[in-house]
């Protein structure tokens, strides 16, 4: 098969055939027929992703390597931050981001066990899980409808002098939270802000006259590249920041807790591998095996990064399409909002969301019941989703804490959070969605509301 070829030529031949294979068997977009399943999300890819994936596998480096370095550089450039670390999921990104704030090297500003972190219960569990796992206290405040983000009027009431160390919240389904107010609150009290940007990649927010990508405004941003998300690498995530100290700590937590910053396969980049003193170790103990944190191994493989590199090049178009799909559904469903039957999502002021989904709240007082609507849609082939946990504090994972009332706090009430748990659901706006599908979804919702 490779007679007379060198390795480079053989690889080129394989990759050409991979591209042909992908074009032949993977890019067969089916025209929509009524009754076909309309999924809420899906991967959007072509031969670029598959060629990169096979290229990386032929290289057989497997762990993070050249594609990882390229992805981290290009992703940071896109968001407009200095540093990015690739990890194996969005949940891992949140874990690394939160644990970074617990590092003793941050002095008085570090989050200690028993300290409080302001967050919301209307969202995804792994935005909150790292706080609880570490032994800090999540302080839940309500959200607003129809933005589905933190009610910033509750921030001061949730604050405890000397205890509150951070705000850690997501931009819900792509809609930025009020970054202006939250950032000003964090700056005023000198506390950290982690933006869980897992569902909002590409969203923009105007702050102090400057338009920025979400995830790049707070101290640390996180992303998920799980298939339904804005872009994918199968499993994957990223942690990003402008702060070199936070970046160094995040990488330490990601990479076993080590102190050394050499990348996989590299030795003695600093030239001081065997001549320094750390902790109570003997002078000159191998720096490669010095641990400044109790860390994890949350790295991704280079094959994941290779897929991500190709996705990133397509990404600006993905965002454009998501915005168009949101606009289509908004216009098509507006009459139902005018009749008071549904509440449609609206962008936070000063923002341009890169929507993850189209979140709808039903009005049971007008006879529109969420569970009935969802069942009707699912029966017609339209896939639906809840706003993840709805109200996280109502879940079985909270049973023990709910009984004792310890380990978390609720400030005010979670009225809107409960409303979302009972009355809200969402449908897809992913870039692979086309007009016939959007039209059918809107028509189906109209019928469900009759
Ligand atoms: C807001 C939010 N944060 C974190 C995650 C976790 O991402 P992953 O599934 O990659 O672990 C998700 C997952 O959908 C999410 O919606």
Globally, the shape reads flat
What is the number of beta strands? 14
Going by CATH, the architecture of the largest domain would be: 3-Layer(aba) Sandwich
- Return the domain count: 2
Can you tell me about this structure?
The structure is a single chain. This protein has 450 residues and is α/β, with parallel strands linked by helices. The protein folds into two domains: 54-304, Aspartate Aminotransferase, domain 2 (3-Layer(aba) Sandwich); 315-448, Aspartate Aminotransferase, domain 1 (Alpha-Beta Complex). It is built from 13 helices and 14 strands. The chain has helices at residues 7-25, 47-59, 66-79, 90-100, 129-134, 155-158, 179-189, 244-254, 302-338, 370-379, 399-404, 415-423, 435-448; strands at 83-87, 116-120, 137-141, 164-170, 192-196, 204-207, 210-213, 220-224, 237-241, 342-343, 351-352, 357-362, 409-410, 424-428. The strands form three sheets. The chain has an eight-stranded mixed beta sheet with strand order 1-9-8-5-4-2-3-13, with helices on both faces. Strands 7-6-11 form a three-stranded antiparallel beta sheet, with no helix packed on it. A hairpin with a 2-residue loop joins strand 6 and strand 7. Helix 4 packs across helix 8 (244-254). The chain is flat, with a radius of gyration of 23 Å. The protein starts with 6 loop residues before the first helix and ends with a helix. The model has no long low-confidence stretch (mean pLDDT 97). Bound molecules: pyridoxal-5'-phosphate (PLP). Pyridoxal-5'-phosphate binds at residues 89-91, 94, 123-124, 126-127, 170, 196, 198-199, 224, 226, 237.
């Amino acid at each position: 098969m490779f007679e007379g070829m060198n390795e480079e030529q053989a690889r080129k031949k394989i990759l050409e055939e991979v591209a042909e294979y992908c074009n032949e068997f993977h890019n067969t977009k089916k025209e929509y027929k009524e009754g076909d399943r309309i999924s809420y999300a899906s991967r959007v890819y072509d031969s670029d992703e598959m060629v990169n994936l096979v290229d990386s596998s032929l290289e057989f480096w497997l762990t993070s390597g050249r594609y990882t370095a390229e992805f981290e550089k290009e992703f940071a450039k896109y968001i407009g931050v200095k540093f990015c670390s690739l990890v194996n999921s969005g949940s891992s990104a949140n874990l690394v981001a939160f644990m970074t704030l617990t590092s003793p090297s941050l002095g008085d500003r570090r989050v200690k066990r028993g300290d409080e972190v302001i967050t919301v219960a209307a969202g995804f569990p792994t935005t909150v899980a790292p706080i609880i796992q570490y032994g800090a206290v999540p302080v839940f405040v309500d959200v607003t409808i129809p933005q589905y983000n933190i009610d910033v009027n509750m921030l001061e009431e949730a604050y405890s002098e000397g205890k509150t160390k951070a705000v850690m919240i997501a931009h819900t389904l792509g809609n930025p939270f009020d970054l202006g107010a939250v950032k000003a609150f964090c700056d005023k009290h000198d506390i950290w802000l982690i933006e869980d940007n897992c569902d909002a990649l590409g969203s923009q927010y105007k702050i102090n006259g400057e338009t920025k990508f979400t995830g790049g405004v707070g101290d640390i941003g996180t992303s998920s590249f799980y298939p339904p998300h804005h872009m994918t690498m199968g499993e994957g995530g990223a942690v990003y920041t402008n702060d070199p100290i936070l970046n160094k700590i995040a990488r330490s937590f990601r990479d076993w807790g080590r102190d050394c910053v050499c990348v996989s396969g590299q030795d003695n980049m600093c030239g001081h591998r065997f001549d320094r003193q750390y902790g109570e170790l003997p002078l000159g103990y191998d720096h490669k095996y010095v641990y400044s944190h109790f860390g994890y191994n949350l790295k991704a493989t280079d094959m994941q990064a290779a897929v991500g590199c190709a996705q990133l090049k397509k990404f600006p178009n993905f965002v454009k399409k998501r915005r168009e799909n949101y606009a289509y559904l908004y216009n098509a469903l507006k009459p139902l909002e005018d009749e008071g039957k549904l509440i449609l999502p609206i962008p936070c002021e000063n923002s341009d969301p890169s929507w993850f989904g189209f979140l709808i709240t039903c009005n049971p007082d007008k006879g529109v019941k969420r569970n009935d609507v969802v069942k009707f849609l699912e029966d017609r082939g339209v896939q639906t989703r809840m706003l993840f946990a709805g109200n996280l504090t109502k879940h079985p994972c909270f049973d023990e804490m709910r009984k004792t009332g310890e380990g978390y706090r609720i400030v005010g009430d979670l009225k809107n959070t409960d409303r979302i748990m009972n009355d809200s659901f969402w449908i897809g706006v992913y870039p692979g969605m086309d007009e016939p599908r959007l039209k059918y979804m809107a028509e189906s919702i109209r019928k469900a509301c009759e």
